[in-house]
């Protein structure tokens, strides 16, 4: 049983795959009493992807098939959240409709009770979240949120490292692409980068486009973020 954040950090660093890291994280949060967990990606108050989840049988299928994300107070609340929050806090911050109350009752009937959510804000308005919940009616332990936050941030940090290792082979970017990325981080335009590197604006555009494609992102801002995460450029 992983009993401390220090032990979790050590264990997570030893994980060599995304799947192994997930298992270590789930073991850690279950030790804190949270048997249910989901890692979801949201945009515009809708769930757009669920990389993994752990729920009682039938719950996930019901959530997806019934489009419960359209009713879920957590999904509605998470875009404005800047810190971890309890589900009761999310419900208390907005007017809950009758349909939403029915949704909450259905969750409890299926073994999804008291929960907490950690928002992970990204570029382009996308908000990732990790929600943890119990399978019976219990109150969260006092002061549990800081520990869950520590576990989750370490999980997300190590996940970024593993994803970089899997997606981007070493030295996949050329030296010129890395140079352009470094100047993108400084907020320089293609024309300004061309002047600095003594190449044409069109050539800079070519290098930046290649960098975006190789990093698997959608624009130069997210390319800079990914470049920092992958240790291709420094902060």
Automatic annotation (TrEMBL):
Give a yes or no for keyword Transcription in this entry: yes
Q: Check the record and name the Pfam families matching this protein.
A: Autoind_bind, GerE
The GO molecular function terms of this record are: DNA binding
Keyword set includes Transcription: yes
Q: Which UniProt keywords apply?
A: DNA-binding, Transcription, Transcription regulation
GO biological process terms held by the UniProt record:
regulation of DNA-templated transcription
Q: Which PROSITE patterns match?
A: HTH_LUXR_1, HTH_LUXR_2
**Residues annotated as domain HTH luxR-type:** 166-231
According to UniProt, the name of this protein is LuxR family transcriptional regulator
């Amino acid at each position: 049983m992983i009993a401390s954040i220090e032990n979790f950090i050590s264990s997570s660093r030893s994980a060599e795959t995304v799947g192994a890291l997930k298992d270590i994280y789930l073991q850690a949060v279950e030790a804190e009493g949270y048997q249910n967990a989901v890692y979801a990606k949201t945009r515009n108050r809708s769930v757009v992807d669920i990389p993994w989840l752990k729920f009682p049988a039938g719950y996930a299928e019901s959530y997806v098939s019934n489009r419960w994300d359209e009713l879920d107070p957590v999904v509605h609340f998470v875009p404005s959240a800047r810190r971890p929050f309890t589900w009761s806090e999310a419900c208390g911050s907005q007017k809950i409709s009758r349909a939403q109350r029915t949704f909450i009752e259905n969750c409890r009937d299926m073994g999804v009770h008291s929960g907490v959510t950690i928002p992970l804000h990204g570029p382009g308005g996308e908000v990732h979240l990790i929600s943890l919940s119990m399978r019976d009616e219990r109150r969260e332990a006092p002061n549990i949120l800081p520990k869950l936050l520590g576990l989750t941030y370490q999980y997300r940090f190590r996940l970024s490292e593993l994803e970089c290792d899997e997606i981007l082979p070493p030295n996949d970017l050329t030296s010129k692409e890395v140079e352009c990325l470094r100047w993108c981080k400084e907020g320089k335009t293609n024309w300004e980068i061309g002047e600095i590197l003594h190449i044409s604006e069109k050539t800079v555009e070519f290098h930046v486009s290649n960098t975006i494609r190789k990093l698997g992102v959608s624009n130069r801002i997210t390319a800079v973020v990914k470049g920092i995460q992958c240790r291709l450029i420094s902060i």
